[in-house]
């Protein structure tokens, strides 16, 4: 009886190319790890920069005649910090071996839209009522999408897991989870 084939690569790759393929996959996994390290450091630097920008916004607002405008500007900076925080959380989860989930990116998009709505009153030119309604509608639709995605995640958690294949590629000594080193 012929063994069950788990991946398309095992079906289509000639036997002689499999070691080369595995070496390329190892190199790509290593480069991906370096890329995520750089992303993590860049996000950490962004936290420091946005914190500094927020402090400057507060100092400017205290020295200006229009405290409300300075407050809204500072709140917009805090929204950027919140966005970076959500991305850092997603990066930490990914580097610990979890999958990236769509809800993180929907949350980031919502925060960006809310920031836009908050900072609209302090812009040099105010948007038309139609443009403002489009921004509000986009935020509401993203909020609805976020709820749908979160609900779908709870459904997938509650469902019983499918039966695993008899012998996976990792169990046979093939490709493992490159992030965890298995």
UniProtKB/TrEMBL annotation:
<feature type="transmembrane region" description="Helical">
    <location>
        <begin position="100"/>
        <end position="120"/>
    </location>
</feature>
<keyword id="KW-0472">Membrane</keyword>
<protein>
    <submittedName>
        <fullName>Phosphate-starvation-inducible E</fullName>
    </submittedName>
</protein>
<dbReference type="InterPro" id="IPR020948">
    <property type="entry name" value="P_starv_induced_PsiE-like"/>
</dbReference>
<feature type="transmembrane region" description="Helical">
    <location>
        <begin position="67"/>
        <end position="88"/>
    </location>
</feature>
<feature type="transmembrane region" description="Helical">
    <location>
        <begin position="34"/>
        <end position="55"/>
    </location>
</feature>
<dbReference type="Pfam" id="PF06146">
    <property type="entry name" value="PsiE"/>
</dbReference>
<keyword id="KW-0812">Transmembrane</keyword>
<feature type="transmembrane region" description="Helical">
    <location>
        <begin position="132"/>
        <end position="149"/>
    </location>
</feature>
<keyword id="KW-1003">Cell membrane</keyword>
<feature type="region of interest" description="Disordered">
    <location>
        <begin position="163"/>
        <end position="182"/>
    </location>
</feature>
<dbReference type="GO" id="GO:0005886">
    <property type="term" value="C:plasma membrane"/>
</dbReference>
<keyword id="KW-1133">Transmembrane helix</keyword>
